[in-house]
């Protein structure tokens, strides 16, 4: 998933031991390229800007095992990374390690661009978060290693809630809607008790999965869209109810500028990536001057009575099939994503790639909300043509038709299913 990162979890007092990063030693050693003299690692600027010490520590671990090896790094922004990767993969100069957004992995795995990896060679593989594990798995093989994760939480303004007589965040969906009803009534018709962009398919699909539905399911080796199933329709109807009741703004917007809109002070709540609330509270975005001290995060309750399943975004690391240093590349990945690396990434505000480390965050009040929310998660269908579904913005179109009232939920869902079925099985 392409996303902006901000250190919003804030683990107080946790020290990153650079020297200790990369303590694991499982990966590599005997495979192709075990004696490589050079390694090229492509990462996004997130690593360069936010945790360069972790990169250096992984380098040190590999250099200790392979004296004399040269490790080169290149850093890319999310918008231009894949175009440059596509160009270099067509040559014999492919990098040995490349960072991918987890929703970007599928298209490359389908095309055979990445080398298969052995999960047992990586320290946390037996506990990888389900959504991240799914993102690196295709046709029964593993083609990447989860790097870190980012989840979604509910964020609201505690000051506005208190003005409506609400003293604590809701624990159930009924409590949530009752609180939002009070806020909406007190603040008036032009205020968004819940600012929920209509085209935000990550949020909408959380309602679908919470209701027992799905975007698509695989049967007999073929994928079939299921947005018009009774369960999916139930989730979409509740999503529409949220938009009709609490979202007073433009019904054609997506979530790309949600943090900016939230910073304008005309909304009480958002259900969004964990960084968005903190970014809205940044002085350059907070037009009210009140967000920093009044934002409260809580685990989003679902209509089902359970925690709302959230889309689990994040990054993966893969080894291009054209790499001449596959074994050493795997060693570097393990050094970077192993136990010490995960500790460092958590200290920088990220969720870890595995359930064991995630459990430690649940016991800390500062990190309990995002860690608990991430336990219930969903991921996109790992179908050959999923990239075409995203490119065509089929889900966004369906949601806009539903939100604006252009089509009924049932009609929009059936239309979306038909469009998805045309491309989802075609690489």
List the helices and strands and how they pair.
Layout lengths: L37 E7 H6 L1 H14 L4 E7 L1 H12 L7 E5 L3 H6 L19 H6 L1 E2 L2 E2 L2 E6 L1 E6 H6 L9 H15 L4 E3 L6 H10 L5 E4 L2 E4 L4 H17 L11 H6 L3 E7 H7 L14 E4 L11 E2 L1 E6 L7 H12 L1 H9 L7 H8 L5 H8 L1 E2 L7 H6 L2 H10 L5 H15 L4
Parallel strand pairs: 1-2, 1-3, 8-11, 13-15
Antiparallel strand pairs: 3-14, 4-5, 6-14, 7-11, 7-12, 9-10
Helix pairs in contact: 2-12, 8-9, 14-15, 17-18
Note down, in words, how this protein is organized.
The chain is an alpha/beta fold. It folds into two domains: 38-151 and 312-378, D-Maltodextrin-Binding Protein, domain 2 (3-Layer(aba) Sandwich); 152-310 and 381-423, Periplasmic binding protein-like II (D-Maltodextrin-Binding Protein, domain 2, 3-Layer(aba) Sandwich). Helix content is 41%, strand content 16%. The protein has helices at 45-50, 52-65, 78-89, 105-110, 130-135, 158-163, 173-187, 201-210, 230-246, 258-263, 274-280, 326-337, 339-347, 355-362, 368-375, 386-391, 394-403, 409-423, and strands at residues 38-44, 70-76, 97-101, 137-138, 141-142, 145-150, 152-157, 192-194, 216-219, 222-225, 267-273, 295-298, 310-311, 313-318, 377-378. It has a five-stranded mixed β-sheet with strand order 2-1-3-14-6. Strands 8-11-7-12 form a four-stranded mixed β-sheet. It has a two-stranded antiparallel ribbon with strand order 4-5. Strand 9 (216-219) and strand 10 form a beta hairpin. Helix 2 packs across helix 12, helix 8 crosses helix 9 and helix 17 packs antiparallel against helix 18 (409-423). The chain is globular. 53% of the residues are buried.
